[in-house]
Amino acid sequence: MLVNVPSIMFSQDSARRQLRYDDAGVEYLTTDDVNGKMRGTIYALPSIRHRHYPQNEVYNVSYFLEQRKFMTADGNGASKKIPSSGTSSNHRGKKYIGENKDEVFENQKNSMHLFEYNHMLFPLYSKHYRLSEKLLNQITGRYDCNCTYETSEDQSNNAFTKNECDAVRYVAIFRVSNHAHCFGDLGLKSPDVFQNYLGIALLDKNLTIIEGSDVVMDINQAFLSKRIKNQLQDCQLLSAPTHYSQDHEQLFLLCNSYLTPVLLRRRRPELQSKLTSNKNTVKNLFGNGLELSLIGDYLSGQEQKQTFLSSQLVPEAKNMHIFACKTQFYLEIWPLSPHIVREINLLLPSNSNDRVYQPFSETEVDIVSKVDYPLSFDPPDSYRALNFESKQPRGTACCIHMSWKKSHVLVGIAHERTASTAKVFLNRFEKASYLSQFYAFKPYPPFDLVMKSGYFCFGWAEVDDVGCDNQPFACEVENFEDSIENPITKIFGGKFPLHNGLMLVNEAYNCPKIQFATGIVEKSDDEDIVLISYSVNDCYPRTIQVSKDKILDMLAGQ
Asked: Structural domain boundaries of the chain?
């Protein structure tokens, strides 16, 4: 059914619009003028399904709070069971808890509930870059593929079939954690014992997880640097050329402020235990369909090519992005007000004996563009009462290619988060709330801004989303109007949707409080469609398909 928010919302002939955050981001952005509401995709990694939150407890706040006791340093033994990547939230920067890694590995597999969110998709096929045949073979399994067989019934060995190899279209990267905000903060801070893992899966053209391809690993064990002050949480996968190939042949993993060249290889799960992995292979906690290896002696404590991007010039953060301009790559440090980027080198040394890799030259300086534009549409009047944590919007996801006035532009998503104090009183359920906006800039230095949209919020999962039934909280959100007055919520501070809805200046919006976009890419088989990946309340991951025309309308205010 079409909603009554048609294209006249952004009409050049009409007066400047003032829009609610949910009208812009839910009703307009994700509604197709012909087909109505566009379906989203909800992901759940099969390898950790046994560790998901119980479906029958999604309205039981007491059960959720009881589980939190197992995440405290003085709880029922959880801190003793979860060393390697379990750090105390009050003692970050210290070494990991625990001694025996083998014992830690086994204990981590049998602990608390795990949630996947903050995901991104990496397309294997794009008109803007080309992966080398070697890299494609590694990811899709063609190195282990007997391509004379079309189906598994035809083959007589354990190799992948041609159809199985051809089915792979994307690599999906997830944050997997024992910490979630499905019920909101409930006055709670981060748990003392904080588990953050890396989830990886292969997707087909329909954006669904390919059976047997997903894995979960403790990426923190790969980074033994004493400089780590926070756990690695949100990771991005990107590719770059090498000295030997103009095609992209090298993968990089960017986690928080750490950039690492990696090798990703698909494996038959049933063969994984028989394979001999190199010393830099990160051990899978769950699943066996993929193998991730780090290039360099990281696991043994050496850091020849392990790169810490933070410095006095580049702040430690987890909201930076790398994009390409022709053959050069750039690190986006701040997206807006001003737009700050820095040239970055992704070309690894060609000589294997040369163990020095420098992402930045000693003389490199920031490229700063202070060009700014007004919002394309106005937010509600109450926006002026909000106070945000940062003086400028933070990076969220970047970048897609678009055409505007016969010019090529790059488009990303920035976000702002409300601070713990505000110009007007906000109850605790209104703090740390997220708003997003699109921004577009020229694809060459100094990367001047050309447009930015007004603020919007991303929506909840829909009951007809693909995979909605796989996530316990995704299809259990109450009716928006009913949930505002739900008496259960009042014992936790008043009117707000039970499962952590967005409320700002005492106005409720039909969005999650936390909707943090961590990926934006073009669909591999339709470049006019954009895939936006975002977290719903740090609870579950959702990807939506949006037309470029809709994004352009929101940017240009047309």
From this structure: 7-347+357-556
